[in-house]
Amino acid sequence: MRIARLTPPTALGTPESAAFEELVGVLNGISVALWDSDDFVETAEEALASLRAQDYQEKIVLVAIEDDAIVGRVQASFPLDEDAETVSLLVDVAPAVRGRGIGSALLAAGEELAAEGGRRVVSAYTEHPAHTLEAGGPVVRAVAGSAGLPADAGDVRFARRHGYQLGQVERSSELLLPLPREREAGLASTADTAVGYRPVSWFGHAPDELLGAFAALKARMATDIPQDGIAVDREEWTGDRVRAQESELAARGEPLLVTAAQHLASGELAAYTEIAVPADGAKAEQYDTLVAAPHRGNRLGTLVKLHNIRELAVHAPHITRLLTWNADENVPMLAINRAFGFRLHALTGHWQKTLD
């Protein structure tokens, strides 16, 4: 087994892209084995669009090769914001070759990249579909929140064995669409109490007149969300960065549908939520949802989520499942999700390690 750096190809369907396309196939196989579905399967076009988006994150991919076949990878993502101290590692190994040290070798190579890049804090992640969570077994808990990850799960044991601590658990939740009429009516009554605000929506491209305000609001995601047990870099968001994200998601075929709440008295944006909308398939993913701290308590989370779901029915009536992710300790947002009818889909462990 050897580890080599993978260079993103300039085009697909060429000899140069063969290794990249092979890797996409391996990762899709890993995903299907984990989730027992194709929910997170990517086309080569989608994967390449994400890897090419390097203006604000440097992404380095190393692959493990055995008998001339790719059997795993580690992707290191370096935020390029000034004073950033973290790096995120995604480690994946084909199920058929696990238990032979390939994951450990990839993780060590990723940590070496982190050290060479001057990063002190390394993040890694484990995924736990709801059907794998058995009640009553031993669990590992983060410093905040009520959920725990199964202590006997292979990837949990792997993370702990390599010196990682569980900093946060995220709940992945699923909502079936359309909303039942009675539930939607109740949510609408709640949203109507958000006096002094109005919803503003766009699909794929933020209005120029709101671009700066939207960028400022997105910057608050790194400071206003729960993060008791993890180190998080502050992020600088500008209009150019918003446009870069829009371009990346458009290239993936998943433009963002956004609803923001505008404060009528000041004109500033007080809350927003996003859905990445694929052109086909039944599943969409909700990305950021944020209510800026000074505006909390005004039912804005319900307002923007309900309005965006209604917009989703207009722009993409084929979507019947919506996935979202929230920190387990984010009690107010989880309460809003329950009111909508979201149910547990999975738990994600956010693990961190400080390099010597």
From TrEMBL:
Q: Which domain of life is it from?
A: Bacteria
Q: What is one Pfam family matched by this protein?
A: Acetyltransf_1
Q: What range(s) does the N-acetyltransferase domain occupy?
A: 27-182
- Top-rank EC class of the record's enzyme: transferase
Q: Does the keyword Transferase apply?
A: yes
Supply the EC number(s). Answer: 2.3.1.-
The GO terms describing molecular function are: acyltransferase activity, transferring groups other than amino-acyl groups
Tell me the CDD domains matching this sequence.
Answer: NAT_SF (cd04301)
Q: Which UniProt keywords apply?
A: Acyltransferase, Transferase
Protein name stated in the entry: GNAT family N-acetyltransferase
